[in-house]
């Protein structure tokens, strides 16, 4: 090479007949090239033969059908593509516009492959590695099994018997709509007693009966023959569990017993049923597609309740999906009809895809739910797959709260705050027949699991530039679990989320409006939504949203049982407890009247130094702020502890209160819920209102034991407990003293009652 000239790198090297290389090397090159050329020629011959076979097959088919267009030229490439894709013009038109059909699954497959590339496979995690290496095969199997479901024929045969089909198929009649949309709703109420749940109050929206006038006028409209949604019925108790008669999808029959084994293992010998007695009764209501309010959840039955609503959610999603795919297949076969002619028969979707919304307080709760969904949908079979499982486990496990060993917290506190207690999360889940994809985009998801704060941040407030709530437009199943914790987090977020359900979407979101249900287009989605609320306490806030924010036309069921003893029976300190009733004209005015009664009647009794070491327990933070401002204004000697107080100030406030340097300690219930510290030095307690959590009444009173006292602060004879209440506190009061005693106290002519506990 001449000096000064650089070789051209990266360029193509030209090989021609005048190659200067040795013959041996040229011979090797030719030997490598020959098999490739032969293989290419063989493939070309196979393709040509296949084209000829397809062309001949097409011609014979036209001859058999007597098609007059036999002489038209056939495009073999078009036939070849159509053979592998199994599509035609009608199918393309129907499926491309369907956001919940197999066309969407193709997009999900593309996203899945991109997710596989992003995930890192750890050599030590063989299960995750095998899962990621076989995702493509599993998704293809899932998709193929979705295309032909053997249950579709059985579904059509029992379509009018399945409560899922009955509830979502027909529109409301004018009278029925008037009954559910009136404020208050026109209800027919019946009480039912069941062995485990106890007293059930069943409310069915029904119009007032009117006389039927016989008319001989001829029918002039086809709407006179239209079938409307039936009225709700009182749920009947399931005696024996038969998944076929309950219309549970057969593909999950084999997984249910294994997934629920932890709950039924103690009763396997006595009761062979796959559900516990409590689960049978709960499922009797839930499977009837009626709203349910259950305020008696405990740590012992929490797993049973979680399994039941997860089973219902999976069954609901699978039924919806199979019905859509079945309709897609029917539309494809209806070659002679246009989409406009057959769309009315196959309206099976909402304005957007998400159908199930589950709201829970912590990430740990979400982890438990997803584990149940996996065990119910996929089980131990190798035919299914979970996408992004490793990422999910990293995000939702760990970060556990360290519990002290020297001075342990109460047992209920450790159970409530176990696992990851982060309250800012949201996750979308899409479901196919044997594939569950985590972290799917919301508008491509079937199930959304979120915390209140996670939804609130996404929904935003009026005037914000980036806000989104269209994904809430077509929610068919709303589940609120551990609702009592929402009161301790931020109840305003709950009201904000419920107010943004079923609003008209602002964007199109690839919706095929020819497949949208007519009642959804009419804006009636909230009357078809089923709401399930599970709580451990019965309070006005939760009870109020069930009464005023749940409009299910099928009716609602409330489990309301009287409280026999109340939490006051667990107070071990011998101390007089005085209940002061004040009159309130309305719930809104009760806030000011409570403050006025406290300032004028109660607080003056505690000004004397002999009433030192007085703790004022305040359930509401707004009342806490009002009292704090008043005590500052009147120059009272007090310290304060609330959920926003820093740790340094908390320690100083406790020290000043214990050593008699501050007469009052203003204490909020939300702080006690999240921290559960042991307050020492209490001689007198004023409950500004009955606690939301009835066990807190017992805890605070038991803090007055001698072991927690300052010896120089007084004697046991100088201890009192004072509680303020009105008629709007009936639920909290019943949880403390019992339902029967609370009714007597509210109905009595006397406004002051004293109860004594301890030995």
Describe the protein's topology.
Blueprint: H1 23-65, H2 76-85, H3 89-96, H4 102-118, H5 126-133, H6 135-147, H7 152-157, H8 163-169, H9 174-181, E1 187-194, E2 198-205, H10 253-259, H11 261-264, H12 277-286, E3 291-294, H13 302-333, H14 339-342, E4 356-359, H15 363-377, E5 385-387, H16 389-396, H17 411-416, E6 426-431, E7 435-438, E8 447-450, H18 452-459, E9 477-480, H19 483-489, H20 491-499, H21 518-521, H22 525-528, E10 530-534, H23 540-548, E11 556-559, E12 576-581, H24 590-602, E13 614-618, H25 621-633, E14 638-641, H26 647-658, E15 664-668, H27 669-675, E16 684-687, H28 694-702, E17 720-725, H29 730-737, H30 739-747, E18 752-756
Parallel strand pairs: 3-10, 3-11, 4-8, 4-9, 5-7, 9-10, 12-17, 13-15, 13-16, 14-15, 16-17
Antiparallel strand pairs: 1-2, 2-11, 6-7, 6-8, 12-18
Helix pairs in contact: 1-2, 3-13, 4-6, 10-15, 12-13, 13-15, 18-20, 29-30
How would you explain this protein's 3D organization?
Helices cover 42% and strands 12% of the residues. With 759 residues, the protein is of the alpha/beta class. Strand 14 (638-641), helix 26 (647-658) and strand 15 form a beta-alpha-beta unit. The longest helix is centred in the first third of the chain and has 43 residues, at 23-65. The relative contact order is 0.09.
């Amino acid at each position: 090479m001449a000096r000064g000239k650089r070789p051209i790198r990266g360029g193509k090297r030209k090989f021609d007949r005048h190659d200067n290389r040795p013959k041996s090397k040229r011979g090797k090159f030719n030997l490598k090239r020959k098999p490739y050329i032969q293989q290419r020629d063989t493939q070309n011959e196979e393709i040509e033969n296949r084209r000829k076979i397809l062309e001949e097959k097409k011609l014979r088919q036209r001859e058999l059908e007597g098609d007059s267009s036999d002489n038209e030229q056939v495009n073999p490439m078009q036939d070849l593509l159509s053979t592998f894709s199994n599509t035609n013009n009608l199918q393309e038109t129907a499926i491309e516009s369907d956001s919940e059909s197999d066309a969407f699954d193709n997009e999900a497959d593309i996203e899945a492959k991109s997710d596989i590339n992003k995930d890192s496979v750890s050599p030590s995690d063989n299960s995750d590695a095998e899962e990621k290496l076989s995702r493509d095969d599993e998704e293809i199997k899932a998709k193929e099994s979705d295309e032909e479901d053997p249950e579709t024929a059985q579904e059509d045969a029992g379509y009018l018997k399945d409560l899922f089909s009955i509830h979502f198929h027909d529109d409301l009649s004018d009278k029925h709509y008037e009954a559910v949309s009136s404020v208050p709703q026109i209800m027919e109420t019946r009480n039912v007693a069941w062995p485990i749940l106890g007293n059930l109050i069943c409310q069915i929206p029904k119009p007032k009966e009117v006389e039927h006038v016989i008319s001989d006028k001829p029918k002039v409209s086809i709407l006179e023959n239209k079938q409307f949604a039936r009225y709700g019925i009182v749920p009947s108790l399931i005696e024996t569990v038969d998944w076929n008669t309950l219309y549970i999808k057969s593909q999950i029959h084999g997984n249910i017993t294994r997934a629920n084994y932890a709950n039924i293992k103690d009763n396997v010998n006595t009761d062979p049923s796959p559900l516990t007695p409590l689960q049978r009764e709960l499922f009797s209501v839930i499977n009837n597609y009626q709203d349910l309010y259950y305020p008696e959840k405990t740590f012992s039955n929490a797993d049973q309740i979680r399994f039941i609503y997860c089973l219902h959610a999976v069954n609901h999603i699978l039924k919806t999906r199979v019905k859509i795919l079945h309709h897609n297949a029917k539309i494809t076969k209806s070659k002679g009809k246009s989409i406009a002619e057959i769309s009315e028969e196959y309206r099976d979707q909402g304005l957007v895809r998400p159908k199930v919304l589950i709201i829970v307080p912590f990430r740990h709760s979400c982890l438990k739910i997803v584990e149940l969904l996996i065990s119910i949908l996929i089980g131990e079979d190798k035919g299914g797959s979970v996408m992004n499982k490793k990422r999910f486990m990293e995000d939702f496990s760990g970060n556990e709260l360290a519990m002290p060993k020297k001075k342990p917290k109460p047992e209920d506190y450790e159970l409530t705050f176990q696992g990851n207690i982060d309250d800012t999360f949201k996750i979308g889940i899409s479901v196919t027949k044997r594939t569950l994809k985590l972290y799917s985009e919301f508008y491509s998801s079937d199930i959304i699991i979120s915390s209140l704060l996670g939804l609130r941040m996404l929904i935003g407030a009026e005037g914000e530039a980036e806000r989104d709530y269209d994904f809430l437009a077509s929610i068919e199943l709303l589940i609120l679990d551990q609702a009592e914790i929402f009161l301790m987090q931020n109840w305003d977020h709950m009201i904000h989320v419920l107010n943004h359900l079923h609003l008209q979407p602002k964007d199109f979101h690839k919706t095929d409006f020819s497949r949208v249900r007519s009642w959804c287009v009419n804006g009636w989605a909230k009357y078809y939504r089923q709401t399930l609320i599970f709580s451990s306490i019965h309070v006005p806030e939760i009870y109020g949203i069930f009464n005023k924010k749940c409009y299910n036309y099928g009716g609602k069921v409330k489990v309301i049982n009287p409280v026999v003893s109340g939490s006051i029976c667990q107070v071990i300190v011998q101390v007089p407890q005085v209940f002061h009733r004040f009159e309130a004209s309305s719930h809104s005015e009760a806030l000011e009247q409570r403050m006025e009664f406290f300032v004028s009647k109660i607080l003056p009794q505690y000004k004397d130094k002999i009433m030192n070491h007085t703790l004022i327990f305040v359930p509401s933070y707004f009342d806490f702020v009002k009292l704090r401002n008043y005590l500052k204004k009147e120059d009272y000697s007090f310290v304060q502890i609330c959920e926003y107080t820093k740790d340094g100030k908390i320690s100083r406030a406790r020290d000043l209160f214990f050593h008699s340097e501050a007469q009052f300690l203003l204490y909020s219930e939300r702080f006690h819920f999240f921290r559960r510290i042991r307050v020492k030095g209490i001689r007198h307690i004023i409950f500004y209102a009955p606690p939301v959590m009835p066990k807190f009444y017992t805890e605070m009173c038991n803090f007055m034991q001698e072991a927690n006292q300052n010896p120089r602060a007084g004697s046991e004879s100088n201890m009192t407990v004072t509680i303020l209440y009105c008629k709007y506190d009936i639920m909290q009061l019943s949880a403390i003293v019992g339902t029967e005693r609370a009714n007597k106290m509210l109905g009595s002519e006397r406004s002051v009652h004293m109860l004594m506990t301890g030995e």
